Amino acid sequence: MRPFTYVEGISVADAAAAVHAAPAAMFLAGGTAIVDLMKLGVLAPAALVDVQRLPLGDIELDDRRARIGACVRNAQLAEHPEIRARWPVVREALLSGMSAQLRNMSTVAGNILQRTRCPYYRDPHSACNKRVPGSGCAVQTGWDRDAAVLGGSPHCLAVFPSDLATALAILDAIVYTRRGDGGARRLPFDGFHRLPGDTPERDTVLDHGELVTHLELPDLAIARRSHYFKVRDRASYDFALASAAVALDLERGHVRDARIALGGVATRPWRCTAAEQSLRGKRAELASFRAAADLALADAVARTHNGFKIELARHVVVRALSELAARPG
Amino acid sequence: MSTTSPRIGRPAERIEARIKVTGQARYAADVVLPGLAHAAYVGSAIACGRVLAVDTARAEQAGGVLLILTHDNRGPLGDLPNGDGTGLTPDPRPPLADDRIDYRGQIVAMVVAESPEQAAHAASLVEVRYEPAPFVVDIDDGAGTRLSDVPRRGDCAAALRAAPVTIDVLYSTPIQHPCPLEPHATVAHWVDHDLVVYDSTQWVLGDQAVLARAFGLSNERVRVLAPFVGGSFGSKVFTAAHTLLAAVAARRLERPVKSVLRRSEVLTTVGPRAATRQRIQLAAERDGRLIALRHHTRSHCATERDVADRDPFYEPTSGITRVLYACPNYEAVHDVVPLHLAKPGWMRAPGEATGLWALEGALDELACESGLDPLALRMRNHSSRDAHTGKPYASEHLRECYERGAERFGWSRREPRPRSMRDGDAWIGWGMATAAHPGNRDPASVRVRLDRERGGVHVTVATAGIDLGTGLYTALAVVVADALDLPGERVTVELGDTRLPPAPMTGGSNLTASVAPAALAACTRLRRRLLAFRRAPDESADWAELLDRAGLGDIEAIGTTDARPPGERHAHHSFGAQFVEVRVVPELGRIRVTRVVGVFDVGQVVDATTTRSQLLGGVLFGVGQALLEQQVHDPVHALPVHADLAGYLLPCHADVPDIDVEWLDAVPDVTFNAIGCRGAGEIGITGVAPAIASAVHHAIGVRLRDLPLTPDRLLAALAESPRE
Amino acid sequence: MVRLSVNGERHELDLDPRTTLLDALRDHLGLTGTKKGCDHGQCGACTVHVDGRRVLSCLALAVAQQGREIGTIEGLARGDHLHPMQLAFIECDALQCGFCTPGQIMSAIAMLAEVEHRRQLDDVAIRERMSGNLCRCGAYPNILAAIRRVRT
Fold first, then answer.
1. Contact (CB<8Å) C141/B656
2. Which of A115, A302, B518, C7 is the most buried (most CB within 10 A)?
3. Measured between CB atoms, does B469 come within 8 Å of chain C?
4. Interface check B201 vs C, CB under 8 A
């Protein structure tokens, strides 16, 4: 780890300004991602501005929305009874990821900002455009079993790993930020994470020194019937090989509305609007779910060893929808 | 023994448990000494080639740096004692010997600094220029060299041609890693020109021999301590580079140096279980009786030089396949494939865990082919003698293991047809396999000392042997308390110190079978000497009273276990039967093990508590081997893809099935040693993976022959399967 | 100066900002019961309590833990009286090499505190909630037994 200065943020504006002013400064929240990557030499900030004690740790709820502070711990969010009742997919996604210890430490903002687990990104000796722009992408010729089948580019095939972000993708979530120059932004979650294209070093649309202050979940009737389903190598404590966040609005056995997003297979949280559209008005049954799953993966591109993810993700979508449709209420 | 001894074979409390649950057990990396400096390493970024230059200028400027060692300035080290049995290193070359790179991650520089943070940062500033050369890191891309020793009996080729039923199948195992939870660690400290080393090792005497030779010292001037070791599973037999370099740096700096490998360094520089590709050819009568077994193994080794030096490491897969089943014609050939990877080593049940994966899998295929129950097929080919040497086993109860295991599992209710059991979305399958591990025993000595103290006596048992979590502390306490008829709290056990009576490395499930009888012998001597002070032959033995009468404050005796004589008439082997239930959700690629039953014959069990734990742990090791564990290297860039614990997946709590382990009681192997015990540390793993794969076949009718059985493999096999 | 409160004792330490809570405990306070198994949040051996909740000390910077109450394995026993979880681990032989054991115990204690109705914790739930603590020796079945014993 490169030596760095540690500064405790005094206010949101002050913290954002401090990072904004120093090109090599970064925010520190739960630390579970950044400390890991600093030890690997992947990140080497010269200064860390600690935002954990800023007033960003509350969950506020009313009829219209949930306002979730950026520094709310993932465990805190998962345990919240009203989140569980109104947005069950959020809780399920959180509990399917990390360990209890990591959920106690890591924050909601840190979760959606976490970096890829691509082994070439994590190895400072490997070519990786995400880590060192212009250095190349070793996955293109290397070991690609865990590489993305959706949203990849010739410059990057790194899977975006957050389970929570996959859930938020179907919830019309909004990310609120404070910029280093004092401005503020309201960013729809849909456009928050970027496709890698030829600038994979930028995972999100955030600018340097732009601090996520909170997330908003608008009240959404369909979210009450929502579900997260994840397949991984190990029975727990493991990243997704494929996962799906789904929501269904059903009326007398028919789908009025549906939401589907994929995790573990794409370079960003992957909303499947065509698949959702295909379900509207259909009977909530296996054939409809299969057709939707085919549409969700229609654009998937397999490489040498990751083709199984396409088939697996199809089954995951079908499974997630089937389990959800079978739920009472 | 069990009929006359009140304690042996019963459950005792693990005697070191209290200090382990309170955090007081001191492992090597826990040692704190005044002036301790900290090491970090620079690993090679290339897999093959030469180091052209190591630029340490920036690193030297970094805060707290005390010393940087490279092959240019490491200084002389003596020849290492490989090959004479006194000690082992992973590479006959000492570390930082020259500019040659054999694998990615090989240590090219060592940085020592005041703090671990400073050392790690400075290591990242060392700049190395390389001249890369072509490399091979995939066993399927490498050329094999045939080993000359080909064990055979009968005429395999002829039998294979003539047999009514034949099986010819390829099984594979990946590189897997022992991956103990405690990273390899050494603290080296020079005291008045003598070397004291706290090490995470399976073998303090091996360390001592290597270090003494390296530094030109007599053995007595090197002391190695390892009272607690955080698991090993074969990976701490060798005296590794970080141990030697810690001692070099400590001498140079005249300060103690702590050298702890990072997890990525453990996974890339410490020898793994070699990858294997195994072809099994079986010939059988229609009733399942084996006529021929041919076993062709390719396994990876380190460099071509090891092959040229006629000392390549090979995974000894045929050790078990040649002895296990009655079969008149047998042949094993072995090719080694040099790769640019760290030299492989031994991992829990080397040879058995890999060889039985192939053989037991092939037998399940033979059972299907012949329409026989897999258990009946094993029974039919059972051998009560070592099938290769023909020596009868002194004590062999495999049939009882099969029968009791089958009963506990409910095997008789198994419908032979695949896809015959379903629960919701999961197909259920049952499989079984034979477990086996040879009885090993090595020369050992143990000192037992009785001290007169207020209210009685206290006993101290001491040997250089090491408890890796295996239960040796407890086993020795049980044996001695039993032999001297004393309560357990009057016994202290001291282990893992070269100053204690010599013991072999902990390996091959040998240690209890080696040192427990030696402890018993020491107790017998003590008893004899003290009982001479009885006033009448029927006077009860009160050791305190007898010591007082003898006018002694203390008394001690050393007991030994001898080397096994050449030309033993009997063979000694442990066996078991393992039964497994899996649930398979094919479209999700999901295999979950839900139930495991194992019944074992390990001779006389010394302590039931730690033996049970060993067997449970073995089963879970097998679950990891079967479902999760593999190390893959990118063939283009040589990147070790699974170099951390999020990539190299060990089973976690949620992977654990219900496990029922049992052993046969009252089956002491009395000609093996005075207690009749064989080891139980490794046998638990040996049949698990093939039983799981057979259960998967039973569940869904798909045969998987490549470990581990991951979702991508299952989905690929289903896609190729004619069923769906 | 970094002020840390560990097992109820206050300490003022001169720490490099890079020092993790784990290294501060082990190298600066001599509390070596907390183990470093991976140093990257992937094994659970370094689990400690921060304000009563279980966290991984290898990913926590010590300098960021000021004002919080840190609990380690060394702080569980009251004199000779072991914590019930420690006793249960001994009674169930829920350990072998012992290296993951402090982390397992700290995790298990916090895990039981996380749930309101302990009796509803079945085996599947306990296993899932303990999955962040790896044990290479495979003591898992006995760890589960020990936790069950304390749960009731």
1. yes
2. B518
3. yes
4. no
In Å, how far is B7's CA from the nearest CA of chain A? 40
Instruction: Identify the CATH class of B17-25+442-561.
Output: alpha beta
B390, B304, B369: which is closest to B164 by C-alpha?
B369
Q: With a CB-CB cutoff of 8 Å, which residues 32-61 of chain C face chain B? A: 32-40, 42-43, 45
A313, A300 contact by CB (below 8 A)? yes
Active site includes B682?
Answer: yes
Contact B197, B68 (CB under 8 A): no
- DSSP H helices, B371-484, are 374-380, 398-409, 472-484
Chains meeting C at 3+ CB pairs closer than 8 A?
Answer: A, B
CATH for C84-151 is 1.10.150.120
For A144, the token pair is 């690609």
* Tens of pLDDT, residues A116-142: 999 999 999 999 999 999 999 999 999
Residue showing tokens 């005041």: B114
Q: Where along chain B do its domains lie?
A: 17-25+442-561, 351-440+569-720
B653 part of contact set with chain A, CB < 8 Å: yes
pLDDT tens string, chain A, 329 residues long: the values are: 999 999 999 999 999 999 999 999 999 999 999 999 999 999 999 999 999 999 999 999 999 999 999 999 999 999 999 999 999 999 999 999 999 999 999 999 999 999 999 999 999 999 999 999 999 999 999 999 999 999 999 999 999 999 999 999 999 999 999 999 999 999 999 999 999 999 999 999 999 999 999 999 999 999 999 999 999 999 999 999 999 999 999 999 999 999 999 999 999 999 999 999 999 999 999 999 999 999 999 999 999 999 999 999 999 999 999 999 999 86
C129 vs A6, A35, A100: nearest CB: A100
CATH topology of domain B351-440+569-720: Aldehyde Oxidoreductase; domain 4 (3.30.365)
Domain layout of chain C by residue ranges: 2-75, 84-151
Taking the domain A223-325, which CATH number applies?
A: 3.30.390.50
Catalytic residue among B568, B682, B720, B724: B682
Q: Mind listing the pLDDT tens digit for each residue in C49-83? A: 999 999 999 999 999 999 999 999 999 999 999 99
B506-544: string of b/e by CB count within 10 Å (b at 16+)?
bbbbbbbbbbbbbbbbbbbbbbebbeebeeeeeeeeebe
Question: What is the spatial order of strands in the sheet that A25-28 belongs to?
Answer: A5-8, A47-50, A25-28
Chains that touch B (3 or more CB pairs under 8 A): A, C
> In terms of C-beta density within 10 A (0-12 exposed, 13-18 middle, 19 or more buried), how is residue B8 classed?
buried
Q: Which residues pair with A6 in a beta bridge?
A: A48
Topology of C2-75 in CATH? Ubiquitin-like (UB roll) (3.10.20)
- Residue-range domain boundaries for chain A: 223-325
ipTM above 0.95, yes or no: yes
To the nearest whole Å, the CA of A276 is away from the closest chain C CA by 32
Sheet with strand B554-561: strands edge to edge: B491-495, B456-463, B444-453, B554-561
CA neighbor of A5 nearest in space, from A51, A53, A54, A49 = A49
The distance of B446 to chain C (nearest Cα, Å) reads 22
Q: Which 8-state DSSP code applies to residue B552?
A: -
Using a CB-CB distance cutoff of 8 angstroms, which residues of chain C are in contact with residue B646?
40, 42
Q: Which of A242, A243, A271 is nearest to A259 (CA)?
A: A271
